[in-house]
Batch of 2 targets.
Target 1
Amino acid sequence: MCGIVGYVGDQQALEVVLDGLRRLEYRGYDSAGVSVLGADGLQVERKAGKLANLEKVLSGRDLPGTLGIGHTRWATHGPPTDANAHPHVDCTGKVAVVHNGTIENFELLVAGLQDRGHERRSDTDTEVVAHLVEERYDGDLPATVRSICKDLEGSFVLVISHADEPGLIVAARRNLPLVIGLGDGENFVGSDVTAFIAHTREARAVEQDQVVEVRREGVTVTDLEGAVVEGESYHVDWDTDAAEKGGYEFFMDKEIAEQPEAVRATLGGRLTEGEGLLHLDELSMSVEDVRDIEQVVIIACGSSYHSGLVGKYAIERWCRLPVQVEMASEFRYRDPVVGRRTLVIAISQSGETADTLEALRHARSQRAWVLAVTNTVGSTVSRESDAVLYTRAGPEVAVASTKAVIAQLAAMYVVGLYLAQVRGTRDADEVRAHMQDLQEVPALIEELLTRMEPVRELARSLVDAERVLFLGRHVGFPMALEGALKLKELAYVSAEGFPAGEIKHGPIALIEPGTPVVIIAPRHALQAKLINNIQEVRARGARTIVIATDGDESVTPYADHVILIPDVKSLLAPLLTIVPMQVLSAELARARGLDVDQPRNLAKSVTVE
Ligand code: F6R
C-alpha cells in the first residue's frame, strides 16, 4: 500500500523525506507528495506519477525546514491525480495530513464538513482528517488527533503536522503498520523501517490505536485516552533489501502474509451505515438496470478466471441468475450471445490485461453492461466499465498473484450479495449475515497463516516431484485449478486441477505410485463423494494431501498428509483453502532454488493478446 515518511530533526527535512520515499518505492504507488514546515510556514508539493515527477517540480524550489512528511500514494479513492496525491491540507493551509488505509465512514464525515462550510478539494477519504483537525484544534495537536481517531472507522496510518506546533509530528495507527525510527537529535516515523534505515537502525513498533508524538528531542506514545504507553525499541540488522521485504525472503512471502489485510480492505466500508445496504465504488447503472439483468458473463484470465469461477457459484446461489465464466482470450472470437440484459464482469488485478480489455470492449459493443473488478484505480479496465469494484489489496510486487487473487475472491462474494440485494433474491438481514461471515474470514486467515510450517516441510519433501494433481468439488474445483496454476508458475512442476468427479473419466491414468494428489476437501455437503475420490486415487498409489476442516476426522484414514483449515461456511472456503496451496508452491519453488518473485517467462501485466 502507500508509503509514509515523517521526519523531525536538524537536517533539511526535504532531502530526508525524499530519500525515505525513494526507499519505499518498492511498495508500488501512482503519485507522491511532501510537505515541509519551516520559517515560511507549511509548504506542500504533490505530483501524479513517479517520484521523478515530484523531484522535477521541486528541483527549482526551496522548501527550507527541519520537519517534513512525505507520501507515495496507491490510489483507492479517486484516480491518481495531483489533487488526490497526499499530503492533504485544511482550508487554512496550516494542517498537512498523509494517510495509508481506508476511512470507511468518510462519506458521512464529508457531508458534515461540507455542511459546516469546508471546501472539498480532492476525491480522497484522507482530506476529511485535515478538515477535522482544523475544526477541533485548540492548541493541542495530539489531543485533537486522539479525538478524531475515535470517530474514524476502517484502517489507517495517519501522519499529521500543524503550522502552530512547528516542532511536532503526530502519527496514529489502526489495523496497518507504523514504525518509529529513534535517532540522535532526530526522530522518524515510517510505513516500515526502510523509510529511515539510512539514518537510524533503532526502531519501535506502534501498536493498535496508539498515537505517537514525534519531536526532535524524543518520542511519546499514548493510547486514545492520552495515557502514556511504554514500549521497547529494537535494533534493525536487516540490509535494505531485506527491509523492503519486511524481513521476508521474497515479496511473495510478504504478500501471502498480507492477505488478511487485503481481504479486510476489500470488504471494508461496503455496507452503508444505518441502511445496511451494500454499495460498489463507482456505478453508472441504475437499480432498474441491475434488476433487468437476465444473465451474467464473467471474463478474466489466469488466476482472475479462477476467482470468476468462484463468483459463479456465489452469484448463482444467492441471485438465481445464470452465470457463465469465460477465458477472456476466447470470449470475443466465438461471437458470444450478450446484449442489453447481460452483465459482464471483467476481473483483472492489473486492469490492463489486453485479452480482458478486448473482451470487455466487445461486450460493450454488444450493449452489455460491464462491471470491473480490479485492484488498480484509474486502470483502463476501470475507466472503460459502467461500474467498478476495487479490490484494494494494495500493490503486488511478486509476479504471480496471491493477495490480489484472495481480494478478488472476497470481491466476488460482495458482487453476489450486491446483486442479490438489488434484485431482492435475499433480504437485507441475510445479506448482512453473509457479510458478517465474510468479515470474520480475515482473522481466520491470520490464524491459518500461523500453521504453515508443516506445509513448508511437506513442500520440501516434494522437491523431486514431476507432476502434481489437484482435485476439488464445487468451489473446491476452481481452487484446484488455482493450486495447479500456482505450482506451474512458481515451481515449474507439471500440475493439473480437475473436478474430483472427473478423475475417473481420464485423468486417473496419470496416477502412478507416489504421484502427489492434493484434494481440497473442507467440510461440505459433497464430502462423502470426495472421500470416495480420495480412496480411488489412493488405491492407485497416489500420495494424498488432503485439505480438510479442523476437527474433521473423516478424511484422516485416507490421507498421507492432512492440512487443516479453520471452519468456515462451505461457500466461503476458497478464502482459506487457497492459502496452504500458495505456501506449498512458494516453498517448493524455494526448495528448487527458483526465484519465487520472478518466475521465468512471466510478466505481471500482460498487455499483449
Ligand atoms: C497468476 C497470475 C496470472 C494473472 C493473469 C490475469 O498468478 O498472476 O494468471 O491472474 O495474467 O492478470 P490480471 O488479473 O492482471 O488481468
Target 2
Amino acid sequence: MRKLSALICLLTISQLLFAQTKPVATPVYKDAKIAINQRIADLLKRMTIEEKAGQLNQLNGGVFTGPAMNDAGQKGKVQMIRDGKVGSFLNVTGVKETKNIQRVAVEESRLGIPILFAFDVIHGYKTIFPIPLAEACSWDLPQIEINSSVSAKEAAAAGLHWTFAPMCDISNDPRWGRVMEGAGEDTYYGGLVAAARVKGLQGNLDDVTHILSCVKHYAAYGAVEAGREYNNVDVSRTALWNKYLPPYKAAVDAGAATVMNAFNVVDGIPASANHFLVEDVLKKKWGFKGLVVSDWGSFGEIIPHGYASDNKDATLKALQAGSMMDMESQIVVKYLPELVKEGKLTMKQVDDAVSRVLYFKFKLGLFDDPYKFSDEAREKATLFSAANRAEALKAARSSIVLLKNANNALPLKKSLNKIALIGHYAKSKEDMFDFWTANGSASDAVSVYEGLQAKFGNGKIEYSAGYNADASTNDKLISDAVAAAANADVIVTVIGISGKIAGEERSLANVNIPDGQIQLLKALQKTGKPVIALVNSGRPLVLTQAQEFSNAIVQCWILGTETGTAVADVLAGDYNPTGKTVMSFPYAIGQIPVYYNHFNTNRPAPEKGDGAWKSRYRDIPNAPLYPFGYGLSYTKFDYSGLSAAKQMEKNGTLNVSVVVKNSGNYDGEEVVQLYIRDITASIVRPVKELKGFRKIALKAGESKTVSFVLTGKDLSFFDGDGNVKLEAGAFKVFVGGDSKNVLEASFDLK
Ligand code: NOJ
C-alpha cells in the first residue's frame, strides 16, 4: 500500500514536471522547415473571415512614432493592425517606423501575421537615378537592371518589401506627366526594359537586398485620352494585344511578383473590375501566380466610373474579376465578410487571393524573421553609399541624348576661359527633382552649376538666372543674362520645365518651351556666342523653336542625384553621348500623338514633294522634330552593306547583317537598330516595328559587322482575340542609327 501510494505520488510529480516542461507545439505555419504551401494552408484554417479580409487591406501609413502617435487616425490604424485588419502599408518607410509597426502586427495581433511594407521607389530610394524614361534612352539593359537593383537594395535596407514599379504603360503622349515613369513608345523595347527592371528589383527574392516589383498600370493606362491623368481610355482589341499588353506580359514572364490594376476602363469596364483582363488574360492565359493590387482607391472608384452602385457592389465586382488587394479604398476589409456570408463570393475565391498575399510574406522570410529588413546599421551603411552614387552617375551619363550639335559646338574645350551659365534650373536643385523621388533629398544632388564648377574650375562659371522658378522672365533677367555672357567663350543655358511637373497628376496641355525661355534664347543668340541649350524635363517638349535659336541641344531629362557631374562630363567630352530617344519629339503640340510605329493609312503623304489630298497637315510636317531612336554622338557612324536573305521559312530564321563604321574622331558607342515591316497582313501592321538592337563600342576609325537573327516570333502579331498569327508574304527589314535613317532590304516569308 505504501509502495502504491509512493508510486502514485511519483507519477503525479512526473506528470506535473512533464506538464511544465512539455514544449508547446509550434503551429505548422510558423515552422520554417515546412513547405510554404503547407504553411499557408495551415494558416488559412486558423484565420477568421475578418482576418482574411484584413490581409487584402492595404492602408496608407505615414509616421507612427513620436507625436504622430497621439493622432486619432494613426491610433486607429494601429488598432486595426492589432485586430488583424491590415495586410500591408504603403508609405511607411525607414527601419525605425517599419519595425515599430511590424512589432505591433507580430506581437499584438492574434495570429502574428507580418505586414508587407510598400513604397513608390520609382527611380531610386535615397540615391536618385535618372527617371525611367531617361534611363531607357541608354539602351543599356544591364545598366538598367543595376539601377533597379541598387534602388531595391536601398529600399530593402530601409525596411521596405515592395515597390510599385516598373510602369509598363506604352504612351505616345508627352502631355501625360507619367511618361517619365515608363520606357517610351515602343512595345518591344518596353518589354525588354520592363523585364530588366523586374529582375533588378527582385533578384530571387531570397535575400535582404531585393524587393517585390509591381507591374503597372494594367492595362493600357498610357492611352489616356489627350494625355490627361485619370482620363478615359478607348483602345481596340488589336491595339491592346499588339501594342499595350506585351510589356506587362514581359514583366510577368520575368517573374514579377505583383501587378497593379489601372485606373481606366478597358472596353468600357474599369480595369479593377475587368474579368477579361485579370482573370482571363493575366491569370489564365499568362499563368500569373502573384498578387494583384488595386491602384490607389481604384476599387472604390469603380462607382464614379458608373460600373458599381455602391462600395459593397464595387468590392464584389473587383474581387469577382480576380483583383485582390485593396489599396486605400478600405472597402474589401469592410464588405468581404458579408459578401461571403451572403454566398456572393466563395471561400475558395477569398483563399486564393489571401494565399497570394501570404505567399510573399513567407517567401520573403517574414514569418521566420519579421525584422529581417529592420537593421538600422545596414540602413545607414547602404543608403547613399559611394558605390550607389557611382552607379547613378553611370546611369545619368548614358541617359543624356544629344539632339543637335551644329558645327561641333560640343564638346567644350577645357582650356576655355569663361562659361556663361544661364538658367534658374542650373542652380535650383528642387527643380531638378521630380514627384517620384522617394526619400531622396534634392539638397544631396549635384546641380549643373556645381558640376560645371567642379569640371572647369570655380572662377570660370558666370551664372545668371535668366528666368524665374516658374520659367517666366522679364527684361532685367534677360539683360543680366546677356551681360553675364559678355566675357564668356560660350553660353550654356538650362531651359525646359521644372522636374516638379513630372509624374502623377502632372498633365500639361502646353508642352512647348516656355515663351520666356525662347525670348532668352533669342537674346543670347544675338550675342554671337555659341549657345548650348540643356533641356530639363520629364517628357519630350516641343523644341522646334529652341533648336532654331541654339547651336547645340542636350536633352538632360531629370537625371537624379548625379545630374551636374554627368552633364559636365558630357559637355567636356569626358563622356561621349550614347543616348537615343525612346519617344518621338513632336514638331508641334497639334501633332500629338506622334510616334514612329504608326499605320500607313489609305493616303500616306510622301516624305518630300506634293502631299495634296494625302494625309498631312497644311501648316507643319507630319514627321516629328526628332524621331524615335535618334541621338547624336561626338563621332559619326556610317552604315553600309546591309545583307539579308531573300526568303525565310516560317519555322526558320533570317540572318541580317550590316557594317557600321566610326568615321569620326572620337571613340564612341552606337545603338544599331533593326526594324521590320509586314507589308500586307490580315490586320494592318505598322510602317516600322523595332525587333532588335545592339549597343556597340567603336574606336575612332574602327568598323564592325553587326548581325541579327530574325525568327518567326519577330514577324508574328496578335489578332483581336490574342491568337498569334504568322502570315506568309512580303516583309521589309531596316537597319540604322534611328527609326528614320535606315538601310532597307526586302524578303518573303514562305
Ligand atoms: C497612384 C499611382 O497611379 C500609382 O502608380 C502609385 O503606385 C500609387 N498611387 C501608390 O502611390
